[in-house]
Structure formats: C-alpha cells, structure tokens
Predict the structure of Gamma-glutamylcyclotransferase.
Amino acid sequence: MLFRLSRAMLTQNEIESSLWVFGYGSLIWNPGFLFEEKRRGYALGFARRMYQGNTYHRGDDLLPGRVATLINDASSSASGMLFRVEGQKQIRAALEHLTEREVGNGYEFRVVACEVEMDNEIVQMNALTCIAHHNNEFYLGPDETFKMADEIRRAKGLAGPNYEYVLKLAEHIRLLFPEENDRHLFELEGMVRNGLATLA
C-alpha cells in the first residue's frame, strides 16, 4: 500500500530507479535507512519550525516534546540533507522506515521542490519528505519562544530529552550551512541552553 502511494506521487521511472528523500530534522544526522548518496540542499518555499508535538521519541502524553516540521513560506527555503535511495528494495525499506518513524507520529508524505548543488551547478529536483500539518493530533503550533524553550527543556521521550534533539539540530545546521541564520531554531537553542545552565 505504501509503495503504491509513493508511486502515485512520483513518476513510475523515478520510483523504480531512484528516490531522493529530503530530511530537515533528525534525518539529517540519523536517516535510519540505506542510501547511495547524500547532499546538502533546500526545500523551496518552506520554513522549518518546531511546531510538531511528539509523545514518543522526544516527549510523552503528559509533556509532549517539540520537533521540526515545515510550514509554507514563499520567501524561505528550508535547509537539510537529500538522500538518494536506489532500487526498489532500498526504496521500499526507506518508505517502511519513514512510515513507522514519521507518519506514525503525525507526519504525511509530500513531494517538494528542492535545490541542490551538483557538479558546480544549482539543480532543482523533486524529493519526498514528511510534513506535519496543523490538523494532526500531535500538532502544538507556535507559541512565545520562551514557552516553547521551556517545554523543550523539560520534555523527554524514549529517544532521549527533547533539548538534545534541538541542540543537535542547531549544531548540524550551523556546521553544514555556516552562512544560514535560522532565527527560529537558533533563538530556541539559545534559550534552551540558558535554561539548562541555570539548572546546572
């Protein structure tokens, strides 16, 4: 069923030969599936926001964690990693992994236009990603930055504390995209660090 769904979103040639997957959160450092190639890139027309709640990996039912999703923003481009998954076996395994990890936690598959540098040229391509829209049951949405930072500092799930996710994401974005100023993410990072230092 999942494989047929993906075939409907991409051309038959694309899904049978290779599939690009765009990751903008923890997939950046931990994709969890086999791939043949990875490249830095951007999802065009989107901004990364810590608006999605998580009650499993980075939080629980009493105190959901906050993890990244993409929101529509025509003036922005969200940075992340593009992974090229090759062949039906590898593609099927990647889709099954993403279904369990992302779709089972409020995300939906979506094909987005991405921009990536290849052979010293900027190339546009379609890639599969997972986006949590505001109508899913875990969605927390925007709030004042200090309130979101406090939620992140206190939440903890089976994969570890929520603040670990946010700090690691900020560190990877800063390392991979040194020219980028992800104001939303970096402001949250700063407030989370200050809160942790106060408790130390």
